[in-house]
Each structure stands twice: as structure tokens, then as C-alpha cells.
From TrEMBL:
Name of this chain's protein: Bifunctional phosphoglucose/phosphomannose isomerase
GO biological process: carbohydrate derivative metabolic process; carbohydrate metabolic process
Cited Pfam families: bact-PGI_C, SIS
InterPro entries: Glu6P/Mann6P_isomerase_C, SIS_dom, SIS_dom_sf
Protein keywords: Isomerase
Coiled coil: none
UniProt similarity note: Belongs to the PGI/PMI family.
Length: 342
């Protein structure tokens, strides 16, 4: 998948994931789920963070939990939950471990992958499986994943049909968003990005941080309001000449007015100390549009920065090397677990 395709076809990726899911998961449509448990790590967990944001708009009575490590979370979380395991490669050790645990406990499982061992496990166990397009970096399959997740929740009767919203999704204004991304990068310069948003859009701030890490190969951090005004604001009161960060504030007109007021105060105090922050309005026609614009914004910011620093945004050499070394070694805890269940 080439960069220009990724940048200009975000909505198409989402729609493809949504439509090709068909009836996947309908075997569970008689179940009563109280929560959704998404298990994934790295780029394969990002769709879960977006889903948690969307669910607050779709049906805030259903909680979404993201599990990013071995085993399963506490029983109070996986009990009465639909368990969705995502590993783009299909060989992520932590996800495979969680799959085996969930299978042993006979939990309702759905798998999402492009192949690998997870696909093999799903076929063997007749677990509902959504196959992602092959040949992509995990983070670039994000919109396919979130489209499929929405359709799966429809098929399991967790949420009502979103088809009327999906059909009316507005095409992202690529040129406008690209321009906003470049202005943000100009503000950051050679400094470390600090990405801020309301708690409602915490997933966007976090995803942009991840895009900066993986595409631009730099450190980046994210925080949310109102939490920022109770701790991190102090870091902005130092001499601006000694500050090596570039602050980006994601703002949306549908944020709680009290949060918007706190963001205004945050900006005022920074300016009083000679510091500045670059604000970006991410408001879309719907929550879906806001999220999709935010993801595309972060993608373009990281690509612009990578180009500016002459860095290949696609290579993730250290991550791949880390995975290879993990796969070569079996951790003692895994050996112990195997002996217990043997």
C-alpha cells in the first residue's frame, strides 16, 4: 500500500472493512454482552482505542476495554464480554497467548488478522474470523479494523445498525488537513511533540503520539483535559528558551463547554509564561468524521515530519527486531503455564 493511497482513502478503507464483514459474529447474536474486550498490541490495538471513543456516542452503556499484554484481564472484565483478538501479522505472542486462555475458558471469541498462527487457530477452532488485507504495516490497516469492528458489533446485536451514518460519511478534505498538519509540524520544529485533547478524544491524541513514534521515529507524548491542568501545566511554566517541546492541542466544538473553558485557561497561562501551543479544530459533521479527520491529521503530521527529517516512515526496524528476539525465546512464565496445563 503506497503512501498516497493510505492518505486519500481512509473512508474507503473503513467502508471496505464495514461491508466485507457481512454476517461475521452473528453466531453470538442471542448473547447478552455487557462489555467489549479488545485484545491487541501496537498498531493492532489502535482500533480498540477508536472504538472506545465511538461507543460513547453510539451506546455509552457498553464499555470497551483494551488489553495489551499476555493472559486475560480480571474476570470482572472478561465476564459477559465479547472478546475480539486482533493481530495483523497473526503471530503476536501476547495475542496468541490471550487467545489460548480465552479458548480454554470457552469465551465468545472473534479473531481479526491477515494470516499467521491466529488464522490457523481460528480455522482449527471454527472461531469467527475477519481477514485483513495483506501486505500492510499494522498501523495502516487501522481503518479496515474499525470498519470491521463496527459491523461485528451490529451482527452481535450489541449496537444498532450504523449503515445510515456510514453511507453519509463525508470525504476528508485532504488538502485542508495536509495544510493543518504542516502548520503543526512547523510549530513543533525540532522539538518533542506533546499532543493534548479532551478525555473524549483521548484516543486521537494517543494515536497521533503513536504515529509520531512509528512514522517519524521520534519521542512523543499525549495527555488529556482536565488532567493536564492538574499536573503537566507546570512543565509549561519554565523558561521557553529551555523548553524542548512543541505543544499541539486538538479542539472540538462538541467537547464539554467546561473542558473548552479549561483549555482556554491553559492557553492563557502558557502565553503568560512566554510559551505557545498550536490549536487545531478537528470538529467533523459526526463523531465518525471527527475521528477520521484526526487520524488522517496525525498520519500526515508524522509523514511530513519524516520527510522533513529525511526518514523512511514505513520502516520499523527496531520493532521487527524486537519481535524476532521475543519469538526466539520462550519466557519462563509461558513455560510454567504450559507445564500447568499439560
Amino acid at each position: 500500500m503506497q503512501g498516497n493511497q493510505i492518505e486519500t482513502e481512509f473512508n474507503k478503507h473503513f467502508t471496505h472493512g464495514y461491508l466485507t464483514t457481512e454476517t461475521l459474529g452473528d453466531m453470538y447474536n442471542k448473547s447478552t454482552f455487557e462489555r467489549i474486550l479488545v485484545i491487541g498490541i501496537g498498531g493492532s490495538a489502535l482500533s480498540g482505542t477508536l472504538l472506545s471513543t465511538l461507543m460513547k456516542e453510539i451506546d455509552d452503556s457498553i464499555d470497551v476495554f483494551i488489553h495489551r499484554t499476555y493472559d486475560l484481564p480480571a474476570r470482572s472484565i472478561y465476564s459477559k464480554a465479547l472478546v475480539i483478538l486482533i493481530s495483523y501479522s497473526g503471530n503476536t505472542e501476547e495475542v496468541l497467548d490471550a487467545y489460548q486462555e480465552a479458548s480454554r475458558k470457552n469465551l465468545p471469541i472473534i479473531a481479526m488478522t491477515s494470516g499467521g498462527q491466529l488464522e490457523q487457530y481460528a480455522h482449527k477452532d471454527k472461531t469467527p474470523l475477519f481477514l485483513l488485507p495483506k501486505g500492510m504495516k499494522p498501523r495502516f490497516s487501522l481503518m479496515y479494523q474499525i470498519g470491521a469492528l463496527i459491523a461485528i458489533l451490529e451482527n452481535t446485536n450489541i449496537i444498532q445498525s450504523q449503515k445510515h451514518i456510514v453511507e453519509k460519511l463525508q470525504q476528508n478534505d485532504y488538502n485542508k488537513i495536509s495544510h493543518e498538519a504542516q502548520k503543526a509540524i512547523d510549530h513543533i520544529g525540532a522539538n518533542t511533540p506533546l499532543i493534548y485533547a479532551s478525555s473524549k478524544y483521548a484516543s486521537l491524541a494517543y494515536i497521533i503520539k503513536i504515529q509520531m513514534n512509528e512514522n517519524a521515529k521520534i519521542h512523543a507524548f499525549s495527555n488529556i483535559f482536565p488532567e493536564t491542568n492538574h499536573n503537566e501545566i507546570m512543565g509549561h511554566t519554565t523558561d521557553p528558551k529551555s523548553a524542548h517541546y512543541g505543544g499541539i492541542l486538538l479542539r472540538s466544538q462538541d467537547d464539554d463547554p467546561r473542558i473548552q473553558h479549561q483549555q482556554d485557561i491553559f492557553i492563557e497561562i502558557l502565553e503568560e509564561h512566554g510559551n505557545t501551543i498550536h490549536s487545531i479544530d478537528i470538529t467533523g459533521a459526526t463523531c465518525y468524521n471527527t475521528i477520521f479527520q484526526g487520524v488522517l491529521l496525525g498520519h500526515l503530521m508524522s509523514f511530513h515530519l519524516a520527510k522533513q527529517r529525511n526518514i523512511n516512515p514505513y520502516q520499523t526496524t527496531a520493532i521487527e527486531e524486537c519481535k524476532k528476539r521475543i519469538n526466539k525465546k520462550t519466557a519462563p512464565t509461558t513455560k510454567l503455564k504450559q507445564s500447568i496445563h499439560s
